[in-house]
Amino acid sequence: MSEHTSAAILDLLDGCLRGDRRSQELLYRQFYGYAMGLCMRYAKNRDEAKEILNEGFFKVFTKIESFDRERSFKTWLGRVMINTALDQYRREAKHQVFEDVEQAQHLAAIDANAVSQLSHQELLGMVQELPPAYRMVFSLAVIDGYTHEEIAEKLEISVGASKSNLSRAREKLKVMLSKKSLDEYERVVR
């Protein structure tokens, strides 16, 4: 048994391997919140996140035998969900053209003070408003800690495009933060 995966979860995984619907349902319920949180970072809205979540759990249940019991199930599940979101993005991106800017400008990071005052939901809402290419790169780089080289490989874009999309995502988020700050100031002054 893995030190990262409890005996109860391993029992559920054994049930899933046997095709037991009850085990699948319990595993789904156990990890729904975690998986949905991951999917929301990559989706443009809740409906798209649910699609990614359902497709991801389908992959989990059909490929459960590939899970290495010496590792953390939660980490494996997270990778499946992120890869499913990336697959969804690639399907949609086939119809879009990426701007490949080799000399991406490095903009200043989003004002940490403004970000710290946002609730998790407000920040998630702003990220979801980003165009798909920016949202994917921002989530992979800032939230999940991937390098530009890893992002370029996962999204099948150049490193320059990854840097450019991250830079533009940050710029759009700055504009959203500025607008939010101005709106709040006007609300207080009135």
TrEMBL record:
One of its GO terms (biological process) is DNA-templated transcription initiation. InterPro entries: RNA_pol_sigma-70-like, RNA_pol_sigma-70_dom, RNA_pol_sigma70_r2, RNA_pol_sigma70_r4_t2, RNA_pol_sigma_r2, RNA_pol_sigma_r3/r4-like, WH-like_DNA-bd_sf. GO terms for molecular function: DNA binding; sigma factor activity. It comes from the Bacteria. The keyword Zinc does not apply. Residues 121-173 form the RNA polymerase sigma factor 70 region 4 type domain. CDD domains: Sigma70_r4. Keywords: Sigma factor, Transcription, Transcription regulation. Residues 27-94 form the RNA polymerase sigma-70 region domain. This is Sigma-70 family RNA polymerase sigma factor. It comes from Arundinibacter roseus.
